[in-house]
């Protein structure tokens, strides 16, 4: 059983369903409103845990009822929540997801407590990282704490996986130098590399750009087209499954968590692991919400 630590965000998601996304200045009525657990970090932790990995979380919530609810959700999944801190005078992270009738979304995030994960906190829960096979981070929490966590991981032979989402252009070289595997989606990889993804050749160019920054392994998720990988001189595309998507929220998070739950530490089964993540994500996009849509390993059989 893989041991995975996630450092990252915990959000309360409010999803507003509507016929189409509003234009600037337009007022629209929703067709439905629902709330669920979310945040890329928490979603990835749940995907890893539901697919069999022993999973621990380093993160933060505010001192409010929402925070209590979000911690309870993770606890119910039997995720180790000992690394989650409750921050005074901060609200729990929240996301407002506008979802249209085609399954497209626009998302607004209030980071709240996610912006208060400190280096001292990472140091305090160092034992969780040291005991792991993999650590996964995203960009919805503090950059400094992610760098610190990846440094500790590398010192202890733990593999580091970066999901650079949401992406920005100037990622500190120090973080990239401590990243073993990077998993951006198409638009994120374009922001990171400046290379427009239009063909497999352009994916290869983007992967080479990232290899040159010191990252050995690259996987680019391509939405309903699947995922491209470029690892140790081998590259290719694993196609997505043909399904009717109703809500793609947490597709990438499911892909990553499920994939890492079956990944060998030397990445020798990466293609198999990507196929597994692809099947898990295909279930997620056929269901509404973030955490409620993430499948259990037993559903993939
Ligand atoms: P993100 O959610 O981070 O933007 P993607 O949209 O690239 O990431 O989706 C991640 C993975 O989810 C894809 O590699 C694919 O396996 C699966 N996926 C996404 N959208 C669909 C879809 N419409 N049909 C089937 N699989 C999908």
UniProtKB/TrEMBL annotation:
The keyword Ligase does not apply. Requires a divalent cation, most likely magnesium in vivo, as an electrophilic catalyst to aid phosphoryl group transfer. It is the chelate of the metal and the nucleotide that is the actual substrate. ATP binds at residues 185, 221-226, 252-253. Pathway: Carbohydrate metabolism; D-ribose degradation; D-ribose 5-phosphate from beta-D-ribopyranose: step 2/2. Its EC number is 2.7.1.15. Residues 1-295 form the Carbohydrate kinase PfkB domain. GO terms for molecular function: ATP binding; metal ion binding; ribokinase activity. InterPro entries: Carboh/pur_kinase_PfkB_CS, PfkB_dom, Ribo/fructo_kinase, Ribokinase, Ribokinase-like. It comes from the Bacteria. Activated by a monovalent cation that binds near, but not in, the active site. The most likely occupant of the site in vivo is potassium. Ion binding induces a conformational change that may alter substrate affinity. One of its GO terms (cellular component) is cytosol. GO terms for biological process: D-ribose catabolic process. Its main location: cytoplasm. Keywords: ATP-binding, Carbohydrate metabolism, Cytoplasm, Kinase, Magnesium, Metal-binding, Nucleotide-binding, Potassium, Transferase. K(+) binds at residues 247, 249, 284, 287, 289, 293. Its cofactor is Mg(2+). It catalyses: D-ribose + ATP = D-ribose 5-phosphate + ADP + H(+). Substrate binds at residues 11-13, 39-43, 140, 253. It is an enzyme of class 2 (transferase). Gene3D superfamilies: 3.40.1190.20. HAMAP family: Ribokinase. Catalyzes the phosphorylation of ribose at O-5 in a reaction requiring ATP and magnesium. The resulting D-ribose-5-phosphate can then be used either for sythesis of nucleotides, histidine, and tryptophan, or as a component of the pentose phosphate pathway. NCBIfam families: D_ribokin_bact, PRK11142.1. Belongs to the carbohydrate kinase PfkB family. Ribokinase subfamily. Belongs to the carbohydrate kinase pfkB family. Homodimer. This is Ribokinase. It comes from Enterococcus ureilyticus. The lineage of its organism: Bacteria, Bacillati, Bacillota, Bacilli, Lactobacillales.
